[in-house]
Every structure is written in C-alpha cells, then in structure tokens.
Amino acid sequence: MKKAKSSVATHRASMERRGFVRVEVSVRRGDVEPPTVSLKALLASAPLDPPLDGIDLARSPDLGRDVAR
C-alpha cells in the first residue's frame, strides 16, 4: 500500500513546483519582533493627538442574531 502524503508534504511539493524554496533564518533573541497585539490594543497605544482624538475604542458586546433551531 502507498502511504498518503501529509497535507504539509503536499503543500511543500506544490510550492517547490511553483519555484519556491524553504529557508531557515537564525537571529539573536533581541532582534525578534515583539509578539503581535490586537488591533484594539494597537489603537489604544497610539498617541491621543488629532488622528485618534475622540474615537471611542470601547464597544458593547454584540450577541449576534437569534438562530432558529
């Protein structure tokens, strides 16, 4: 029996056929970018000068619509 390729192996083979190669990059820990933050946190950390002055970043919880069962 032939063993099925994993989805990762299939993806990598597809990328290789398209001319892409995998590379590994090593960097010092201090050069690594900080972890990603949410858009809300990013906006909240922005200066409160005119660009974001007066924009309310709080929102009420949206429970969505009722779904008939």
What would you say this structure looks like, in words?
The protein is an all-alpha fold. It has 2 helices and no strands. 0% of the residues are buried. The model has no long low-confidence stretch (mean pLDDT 82).
Q: What attributes characterize this protein structure?
A:
mainly alpha; 25% helix; 69 residues
Helix run count: 2
The average pLDDT score comes to 82
Percent of residues in helical segments? 10-25%
Distance between the termini: 45 Å
Model regions low in confidence, pLDDT < 50 over at least 5 residues: none
Total number of β-strand segments?
0
Element pattern in H and E: HH
How can the largest sheet be summarized? Answer: none
| Approximate shape | flat
Percent strand = under 5%
